[in-house]
Amino acid sequence: MKQLKALDIGLRVLSKFKSNFAYSRIFIPEVFLLAASILLLLFIFIDLPIDGFIIFTVIAFSACIYILYLIGSKQRKEFEKISLAINSIRNNEYNNASDVKLDKYLSKLETDIKKMFIKNQNDIKYLKKLEQVRTEFLGNVSHELRTPIFTIQGYLETLLNGALEDEKVNRNFLEKANNHTLRLNALLNDLIDISMIEAGQMRMSFRYFNICDFLVDTIKEFQPQAEEKNIELIFKSAMKDLKLYGDKEKIKQVMVNLIQNAIKYTEKGLIEVSVIEEKGFGMISVKDSGIGIAEDDLDRIFERFYRVDKDRSRAVGGTGLGLAIVKHILDAHGTTIQVKSEPGIGSEFSFKLKR
Ligand code: ADP
C-alpha cells in the first residue's frame, strides 16, 4: 500500500516536473549554452583535474535542469492566469474590467485584455439593442399592417352581408375600403424604402442641379392638394440660378415628405418653401402655419413610427416613417434636418446642401 502511495506521489512529481519543463523548453538552448561557456572558461583558465571537471559538469547540468524547472514553473503559473482570464471572459464570469488581474509585470497584457473585455461587452450590448430595435420594428410593422387590413376586411364583409344593395352606404364603404388600400400601399412603399436604406442599399447619385427649377416643379405637384384645403402654397427665392449638390431623386423624396406633412398638419394659412444662399451652402426650408409640435416631441419625430397624435396621423394618411426616411437621406448627404416649431403657430423644417 505504502509502495503504491509512493509510486503515485512519484508519478505526480514527475508529471509536474514534465509540465514545468515543457513550459521552459524555449530556454533550453540558452541555459545550456551559458553553462557550457562557464565550464569552458573554467577549463581554460583554471587548471582543474579531470575528476573535478566532471563534478563541475554534473553540478552545472543539475543547475541547468533546476533553473529550467523554476522558469517553467513561473511560466506555467503566468499562462494559467492568462488562460483563466480569457476563459472567464468567454464564460461571462466577469462583471467588470477590473476583475481581470495579472501579475504587475504583465500590466501591458492586462490592459489589452481589459480593452478586449470592454469591447466585447459593448458589442454584446449593441447586439442586444439591435435585437430589441428589430423586435420593436417588427411589432410596429405588424400593428400598422393589421389596422388597414382589418378595416378593409370589415367593410368588405359588411358589403357582402347586404350593404352592397343599400344605395345609402355601398359607395361610401367602397371608398373607405379603397382609402385604406391606398394607405396600405403608402405604408409598404415607405417600409421598402426604409429597409433598403437601413440595409445600406441606398444608391446615391450626386450632381449639381438648379434648385429653384426643381422646387418650383415639386411645389406644382402639390398645388391641388393645398387648394383643396384652402392653403396657400408659395415658393420664395431671390436667386434663380443657384445650383446645389445632391441626389436630385432623393432630395425630391425629402421635399415630398416635408411638403406633404406641411399640408397634412396645417388647417389654414400659408406654406412657404424657400431657398436662401449661405456661405458654401444653400438652405432649403418648408415653413407652415399648422398645428405645430410640442418641444418634448421635437426630438422624437424622426424616430420610425413616432407620431405626436397617432389618430390624426392615420386620419391624414400618415405612415409614421416619412421623417425617418428624410433623416436617413439627409444623413447620406452629410447634412442634418433642423426643426423649429411652436404648437398652434406652425413649424419650419430646413436643411443645407453644398453649393
Ligand atoms: P406621418 O406619416 O405620421 O406624418 P412622419 O414621420 O412624416 O410621419 O412625421 C412624424 C410625426 O411628426 C407626425 O405624425 C406628426 O405628428 C409630426 N409632424 C411632422 N411634420 C409636421 C408638421 N409640419 N406639423 C406638425 N406636425 C408634424
How would you portray this structure in words?
The structure is a single chain. This protein has 355 residues and is of the alpha+beta class. It folds into three domains: 2-93, no CATH class; 130-198, Signal transduction histidine kinase, dimerisation/phosphotransfer (DHp) domain (Helix Hairpins, Orthogonal Bundle), CATH 1.10.287; 207-354, Histidine kinase-like ATPase, C-terminal domain (Heat Shock Protein 90), CATH 3.30.565.10. Helix content is 62%, strand content 14%. It contains ten helices and seven strands. It has helices at 2-23, 28-45, 50-90, 107-160, 170-198, 211-228, 248-264, 295-298, 310-315, 322-332, and strands at residues 207-210, 231-237, 243-246, 269-278, 281-288, 337-342, 346-354. A five-stranded mixed β-sheet has the order 2-4-5-7-6, covered by helices on one side. Helix 6 runs parallel beside helix 7. The protein starts with a helix and ends with a strand. The model has no long low-confidence stretch (mean pLDDT 92). The protein binds adenosine-5'-diphosphate. The site of adenosine-5'-diphosphate has 23 residues, from helix 7 and helix 10.
Features:
single chain; 355 residues; alpha+beta; Helix Hairpins; Heat Shock Protein 90; 3 domains; five-stranded mixed beta sheet; 10 helices; 62% helix; 14% strand; binds adenosine-5'-diphosphate
- Total domains, how many? 3
Helical amount among residues, as a percent range? 55-70%
The fraction of residues in strands falls at 5-15%
Radius of gyration over alpha carbons? 39 Å
* Overall 3D shape: elongated
The helix/strand order is HHHHHEHEEHEEHHHEE
Mean pLDDT: 92
Low-confidence stretches: none
Number of strands: 7
In the CATH scheme, what's the topology name of the largest domain? Heat Shock Protein 90
Largest sheet composition: 5 strands, mixed
Instruction: Give me the CATH architecture of the largest domain, please.
Output: 2-Layer Sandwich
According to CATH, the homologous superfamily of the largest domain is: Histidine kinase-like ATPase, C-terminal domain
- Which structural class is indicated by helix and strand composition? alpha+beta
Strand order of the largest sheet: 2-4-5-7-6
User: How many DSSP H or I helices?
Assistant: 10
Name the ligand types.
Answer: adenosine-5'-diphosphate
The end-to-end span amounts to 95 Å
Q: What is the CATH C level class of the largest domain, in words?
A: Alpha Beta
